[in-house]
């Protein structure tokens, strides 16, 4: 279950980051069974949705990029057969970008899942100081996936409890399974000297939060950029330090407390280096990276794009489907394409919006906590074939 919860970190997972920074990310309640289409009803006439031409162009580009995967992926949601997308995907391949709005209004219809009441957070691609080679002051290793990280059953686990995939761990010198090195052990050098370093970061606090995002950019002193993305995880438990700090009374509005925000948490970590180090080590999870030749890639294997990609729960919304959001955070209103997933993104109306990189992206994503209405866009005629009123 932990590995599933952390899979989103391959795609930078801000939901976990936001939860750790004190924003309230509600747990889904009373969800329909995964793998079964949620209660579905017909949404409003798509022509009444007020998306702009620019919004439609971005969504068309993202939808077109998703089509190859959309047509061959199994749909866990039960909403629609993959082959039913072929007609609109064929049209998207040659549809002119300057007429994108008509593509959606003419060939799609809206569907509401359950009550359609949406909750959305945001995520982004962080950028920190780093270098491909170790330089003075650049001492935080960025590790590739180690070859001794394996899935196996503990020797003392009864056969009756061995269900699903075996847990991640390592085989020790005695040939027995044990948990893999945690954050503290790795920081203390458990992986040093094995040639796993693909880069070096300058600031351990910045790298800690980049690991939570799961992907990002390293800016070298010479101005060059190295993009890194999720390669794997050590199988150890994730702990949101923001929640721990709040429980300990370190965050809040009182005297001596720090603001319950990313800025407040980072300020505490810098002003209390020893206590901060121990706090970060409570999060035993460690993310391994690989170099990316393109921008960050989502759960579909498609490059995610600013303002167009949204993470959804594929048990309810097919990956690749367009989604309409109308939230109390106007910046997130409009058309998105479900190209990503997340461990914290559970339920038919839970979303995580992607904002690219840079200061503006960090500001929007860090403050994104929007509520409103959501509709899924399906090829016209889908609801009639389903018998949906």
> How many domains in all?
2
Radius of gyration: 22 Å
Please provide the ordered H/E string of secondary-structure elements: HHEHHHEEEEEEEHEHEEHHHEEEEEHEH
> How many runs of DSSP E, i.e. beta strands?
17
Strand content bin: 15-25%
Query: Which geometry do the CA atoms define?
Result: globular
Widest sheet: strand ordering: 3-16-13-15-14-17
Low-confidence stretches: 1-29
Query: What name does the CATH topology of the largest domain carry?
Result: Barwin-like endoglucanases
CATH class of the largest domain: Mainly Beta
Sheet having the most strands:
6 strands, mixed, barrel
Count of discrete alpha- or pi-helical segments spanning 4 or more residues? 12
CATH architecture of the largest domain: Beta Barrel
- Give the end-to-end Cα distance, rounded to a whole number of Å: 37 Å
CATH superfamily of the largest domain: RlpA-like domain
Helix-strand makeup class:
alpha+beta
Helix fraction by DSSP (H/I, runs of at least 4): 25-40%
Mean pLDDT over the full residue set: 88
Organism: Blastomonas marina
Signal peptide: 1-19
Enzyme class: lyase
EC number: 4.2.2.n1
Notable features of this structure?
389 residues, alpha+beta, Barwin-like endoglucanases, Ribosomal Protein L25, Chain P, 2 domains, six-stranded mixed barrel, six-stranded mixed sheet, 27% helix, 24% strand, globular, disordered N terminus, 3D_dom, EC 4.2.2.n1
């Amino acid at each position: 279950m932990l590995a599933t919860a952390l899979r989103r970190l391959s795609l930078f997972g801000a939901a976990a980051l936001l939860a750790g920074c004190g924003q309230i990310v509600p747990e889904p309640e009373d969800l329909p069974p995964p793998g079964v289409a949620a209660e579905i009803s017909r949404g409003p006439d798509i022509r009444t949705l007020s998306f702009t031409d620019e919004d439609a162009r971005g969504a068309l580009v993202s939808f077109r990029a998703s089509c190859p995967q959309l047509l061959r992926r199994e749909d866990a949601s039960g909403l629609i057969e993959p082959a039913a997308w072929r007609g609109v995907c064929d049209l998207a391949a040659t549809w002119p970008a300057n007429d994108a709005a008509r593509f959606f209004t003419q060939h799609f219809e809206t569907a509401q899942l359950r009550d359609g009441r949406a909750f959305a957070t945001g995520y982004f691609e962080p950028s920190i100081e780093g270098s491909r080679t170790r330089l003075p002051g650049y001492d935080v290793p960025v590790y590739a996936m180690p070859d001794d990280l394996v899935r196996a059953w503990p020797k003392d686990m009864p056969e009756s409890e061995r269900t699903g995939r075996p847990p991640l761990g390592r085989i020790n010198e005695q040939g027995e399974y044990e948990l893999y090195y945690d954050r503290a052990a790795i920081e203390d050098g458990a992986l040093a000297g094995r040639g796993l370093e693909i880069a070096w970061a300058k600031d351990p606090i910045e790298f800690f939060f980049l690991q939570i995002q799961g992907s990002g950019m390293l800016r070298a002193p010479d101005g060059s950029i190295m993009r890194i993305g999720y390669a794997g995880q050590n199988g150890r438990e994730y702990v949101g330090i923001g929640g721990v700090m709040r429980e300990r009374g370190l965050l809040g509005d009182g005297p001596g407390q720090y603001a319950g925000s990313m800025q407040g948490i980072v300020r505490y970590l810098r002003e209390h280096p020893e206590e901060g180090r121990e706090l970060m080590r409570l999060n035993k999870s460690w993310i391994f990276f690989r170099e990316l030749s393109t921008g960050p890639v989502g759960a579909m294997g498609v490059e995610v794009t600013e303002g167009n990609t949204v993470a959804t729960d594929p048990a309810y919304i097919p990956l690749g489907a367009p989604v309409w959001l109308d939230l109390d955070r106007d910046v997130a209103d409009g058309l998105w394409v479900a190209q990503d997933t997340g461990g914290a993104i559970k339920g038919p109306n839970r979303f995580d919006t992607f904002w690219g990189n840079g200061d503006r992206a960090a500001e929007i994503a860090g403050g994104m906590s929007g509520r409103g209405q959501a509709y899924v866009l399906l090829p016209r005629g889908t609801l009639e074939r389903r018998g949906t009123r």
